[in-house]
């Protein structure tokens, strides 16, 4: 029964979660919440106490130990089936990405590149021998993978790639350069895309192959707690069975990118949630003009706006996850999620930064780190412009890429 004021009489309402005012948690199963809690626990112990220092120093010194810990939890390739992979749902994977990026975008990138790019390429397009050789150790975190598609002069237009694969007897010989490659300098295996006579093909390249090198990219001001490299292929000779046999053309790498973009849809909301939480806590403690700044109207306007945007982005991520687990996910739907959620996450981080004032630029708080990281997330796995064109083509039926 409702009273004249619109309040429900009788049962006492539970106090709402200020970071989940819409009650999205009620839409998750107990199993999904358990996955999220397990990822949060490992991030609380293995990442959060150290990540600000890693970011400040521009290094990820414990990457192999961290990979094994994440692998032991089943997070690497967790949405893939068989070969040591956990075979969990898309929503489970999304929730994991959200928690990982709530700690740092670089950590989520480590997991995304391993599972959604390198492992997915081998699982989806590889031979049985390639799957058996690489997927079990990669799932366990005992082997680290990277994904070589982007080149120094070809990012949004991979069709223009210059890396070449030439047959020499029964072998392949690869020559070229790849740029901005996460995990490159520490990888045991690289999935490299190159132009062959019959079109674009993928190759599984052990990184100890002569002619392969992966110099570290330095002087980054974003994704600093992440290993980013160039891949150099100078006459890299591979056996004929190093090629991924089940795909030809750009459909191969683009299918992998869609997998990774889906994780970003969730991950960006993790960075946003972390920044909102920091702003909310700070606003309740910071006193100006005789009271906590949380009590001022303009501060509450910022907090309310951030909460609404976080809710909308998380609902979109959950909707896309349910679609991925059910009827399927189309490329333009992934583009819509990536475009919206990264932009909204950046807006939330920037607004949270203003709530913290000068403290907002300090690594004592996570906000500036998330804000800087998201500048990379904004343009990798497809720039905003490219995702707008994907959506535009889906709406009009007319491609406008050229």
CATH architecture of the largest domain: Up-down Bundle
Helical residue percent? 40-55%
Coarse shape: globular
What count of domains describes the coordinates?
3
What structural class should be given to the helix and strand makeup? alpha+beta
**Mean of residue pLDDT values:** 95
Unreliable stretches: 1-10
Family: Belongs to the acyl-CoA dehydrogenase family.
InterPro entries: Acyl-CoA_Oxase/DH_mid-dom, Acyl-CoA_Oxase/DH_mid-dom_sf, AcylCo_DH-like_C, AcylCo_DH/oxidase_C, AcylCoA_DH/ox_N, AcylCoA_DH/ox_N_sf, AcylCoA_DH/oxidase_NM_dom_sf, Glutaryl-CoA_DH_mitochondrial
GO molecular function: fatty-acyl-CoA binding; flavin adenine dinucleotide binding; glutaryl-CoA dehydrogenase activity
GO biological process, one term: fatty-acyl-CoA biosynthetic process
Please provide a written account of the structure.
This is Acyl-CoA dehydrogenase. This protein is α+β, with helices and mostly antiparallel strands and about 400 residues long. The chain has helices at about 30-45, 50-55, 65-70, 90-105, 105-125, 130-140, 250-285, 295-325, 330-355, 365-380, 385-395, and strands at about 80, 85, 145-150, 165-170, 170-180, 190-195, 200-205, 210-215, 230-240, 285-290, 290. It has three domains: about 25-140, Butyryl-Coa Dehydrogenase, subunit A, domain 1 (Orthogonal Bundle); about 145-240, Butyryl-CoA Dehydrogenase, subunit A, domain 2 (Beta Barrel), CATH 2.40.110; about 250-395, Butyryl-CoA Dehydrogenase, subunit A, domain 3. It has eleven helices and eleven strands. Residues about 1-10 have low confidence and may be disordered.
